[in-house]
Design goal:
mainly alpha
Length: 491
């Protein structure tokens, strides 16, 4: 515990002393503790925790601690507070601890659960919970048994989140109330569900079939926790995969560092405004974040070139959507995001690349990412120009809607930004040189490109090499499906 802050060590010590104090009445001679029931429940809890420490062959990882909670709550329903605390204290330290300091975390895992086990048993007894469980020839009293069970679950959740919030505040210097407010809504619902499983376990335990029948409840609970843990670990693996890919792009193309994350945020704003379901919103977030992953296949000398691109270099740059599609082809969870990666540079009028798709032939995800990509590029400060104000960028998107961008997506982004705004953190500098982002929430007219007086305005991205002062280069043509207007090479 040498690396643990002093305040956190005090919290751990206080919790241990409190847990010991809760268990002391069990050692008084003649205490009404059903030791046989307590020993069986402690053994079940120990088995669940020990099994959860190891991953099954080919499995996703250990089972979450949720498999242990119905046993703790069943102990609170079947035993007096001091014995319920002993059941929790005997099994919880055997659980998996993944981060140091291991000793402090293992001790902290046992002491608060012992306190919460006792805290859950007190309101259950106060509301007459043991009498509603049946046993001895009497039938369980439903739905009256639900009242003490819910009271026990609420007490369990309140005490556990309060203790966790306190140690987080001590270890990480967070405000206690903020930690508790953050943890309680996440804990209360699952604890109520575990309380119902614990109630069924206690009822079967008291039934003529005995403790063995309680396994009929605990085994499905354990399996459901295994499935739940697998789902969350897969989600964590997905996020880690995305982070690794984006980090690789940022390392290679530091010129647009942070651009991918902001495109992902803008894509989510559009998706939610369009009323997409959560699964598609998450897919669009992945699509926005990974839309430029194909830059890993573009030579670094082209990505980091200071001057305007030659026609040949532009043709190489226009390969990045196809490179990106090849990179993510085997990642199954990306689903529709793969189409967005391949087609986010298509234009509604058919003059985009790589395949010159037009109108509704362009996948919906690609039309969303195209708008989000252009919006972030215009509102980000680059080494060759300052950021456009958000109203000016929106005006440019509206001007190009129908030819370059889908008007429906542009309108959705406009509505979303009016509702949620676009903070300075979202429009950070993406060039190598640090600088202040230039973002204004004040209504302003669109800013003209840096061209000569009276020069006609071009659709966004139609300037060679991404620089406003670079001479125009004729549109590239080749036998491969790479033709299209020249674009901002940094997008």
């Amino acid at each position: 515990m040498s690396g643990t802050p002093a305040a956190a060590r005090v919290c751990v010590l206080a919790a241990v002393l409190g847990a010991i104090w809760c268990t002391l009445p069990a050692y008084v001679p003649g205490a009404p503790v059903p030791w046989g029931t307590a020993a069986l429940l402690a053994a079940l809890g120990l088995a669940c925790e020990a099994a959860g420490r190891r991953s099954p062959p080919g499995g996703p990882g250990p089972v979450a601690a949720g498999a242990f909670l119905p046993i703790l709550l069943a102990a609170a329903f079947l035993l007096p507070p001091e014995a319920a605390a002993l059941v929790a204290a005997s099994g919880s330290p055997a659980g998996r601890v993944e981060q140091p300091p291991y000793a402090a975390r293992r001790i902290w895992r046992g002491a608060p659960l012992a306190l919460t086990g006792a805290a859950a048993s007190w309101p259950d007894a106060a509301f007459g919970g043991p009498a509603t469980l049946g046993g001895g020839g009497a039938a369980p009293d439903f739905p009256l048994a639900l009242l003490p069970a819910c009271a026990a679950a609420v007490a369990f959740s309140l005490v556990l989140t309060a203790l966790d919030g306190l140690v987080l505040a001590a270890a990480e210097r967070r405000p206690v109330h903020r930690s508790v407010y953050k943890l309680l809504p996440l804990a209360l619902g699952p604890h109520l569900v575990h309380a119902l499983a614990g109630l069924m376990t206690a009822v079967l335990w008291r039934s003529p079939y005995g403790p063995l029948s309680a396994l009929l409840v605990l085994l499905p609970v354990y399996l459901s926790c295994w499935v739940f843990a697998r789902y969350h670990r897969e989600q964590a693996a997905h996020r880690a995969t995305i982070r690794a890919l984006v980090h690789a792009v940022d390392i290679k193309d530091t010129y647009t560092r942070g651009h991918s994350e902001r495109v992902g945020r803008a894509s989510v704003l559009i998706a939610r405004e369009l009323g997409m379901d959560d699964r598609r919103v998450e897919g669009l977030r992945f699509a926005g974040i990974l839309h430029d992953i194909g830059k890993l296949g573009v030579p670094t000398r082209v990505l980091r070139k200071d001057g305007p691109l030659t026609p040949e270099e532009r043709r190489i740059m226009e390969l990045h959507p196809e490179y990106g599609h090849e990179i993510v082809r085997g990642i199954g969870f990306l689903d529709e995001a793969r189409d967005a990666i391949l087609h986010h540079h298509e234009r509604l009028d058919g003059s985009g690349y790589p395949y010159g798709l037009s109108g509704s032939r362009i996948p919906e995800f690609a039309r969303v990412v195209a708008v989000a990509d252009a919006f972030d590029a215009m509102t980000s400060t680059r080494s060759y120009r300052r950021a456009r104000p958000v109203p000016a960028a929106l005006a440019e998107l509206k001007r190009c809607a129908g030819s370059q961008f889908d008007p429906r997506m542009v309108g959705a982004l406009d509505r979303a930004l009016h509702r949620h705004g676009w903070s300075a953190a979202d429009t950070a500098v993406t060039a190598d040189e640090p600088g202040e982002p230039y973002v204004s929430r004040e209504p302003q007219g669109p800013r003209e490109p840096q061209q000569g007086p009276g020069a006609p305005r071009e659709p966004y991205g139609a300037v060679a090499g991404g620089r406003r002062d670079a001479p125009p280069v004729p549109r590239a043509r080749s036998a491969a499906p790479l033709s299209g207007p020249s674009r901002d090479r940094r997008r």
